[in-house]
Amino acid sequence: MRQLAFAAAVAAAAAAVPAFGQALFQTDVDASDVRAVPIERPAPNFPGGVRTGQEGWVRVNFVVTPDGRATDPIVVEAAGGAPFEHAVREMLDRWRFEPPGAHEIGNNVIDAYFEIDRGRDAASANFIRRSRRIVRHVYDEEAGPAREQLDAAVELGGWNLYESTMLNLMAGRVAALEGDDFGKLEHYRRAFAMNVRNSVSGEDRRDLLARIFEVEYAKSQYSAAAATAAALAAEPGG
Questions:
Q1: Helices (H) and strands (E) in the chain — how many of each?
Q2: Hey, which residues does 27 pair with through a beta bridge?
Q3: What's the pLDDT tens digit per position in 18-66?
Q4: Given this model, what pLDDT does residue 16 score?
Q5: More confident call, 24 vs 154
Q6: Phi/psi at 73 (5° precision)
Q7: Which residues contact 95 (CB under 8 A, 6 or more apart)?
Q8: H helix intervals, the chain
Q9: Is the CB of residue 51 less than 8 Å from the CB of residue 158?
Q10: Is 185 helix (H, G, I), strand (E, B) or coil?
């Protein structure tokens, strides 16, 4: 029953199709997990040459050198394709930090978001059609057809961040049907990390955190499970 409720929430969240307006490209960077102190942090440029409607999210880990520059960027996770990853690397070349002195500062993490404000905060008609096919197979516990439809949607691309978040939620359900707990955990974590435009909120957000906690605990990832439990407790209504 809980499985069906979660899949229903995925389908319902993608069901509204607001009107399109004039496109406005927006970029934002969450630097709350940067250990060094930024003194110059220009925003990334929205890349050209991407598919119409494509948005992106990139999580990067990097090192700050003794003279206050970012180096050795490693893309930890991303959605949207290589142009967005290149834009973040290019942005980090322009960032400057307070020089830490004789030693490097490692393990700095940022999340960069590339969005198109078109007066919409939900899914396109094309995405809704595809997501309904996936959810129908999830309902019927048909892992093979669900995987086929999911992979086709991922390969097609051109999705906004809202749609990419929903795709990862559905990918988590498909991985669960396939008995792939680590795949399920990976997709649920990614959906939670890139969640924008209230793709997952309220009770659905708490349910997602609870699902992440369950897998982490079952797989003996106790440190991660403790952090997730703390995040769940901090949620309104948690």
A1: 8, 6
A2: 114
A3: 434 455 788 999 999 999 999 999 999 999 888 888 999 999 999 999 9
A4: 44
A5: 154
A6: -70, 130
A7: 38, 40, 41, 42, 69, 70
A8: 2-13, 82-94, 125-139, 143-156, 161-177, 181-193, 202-218, 222-234
A9: yes
A10: helix
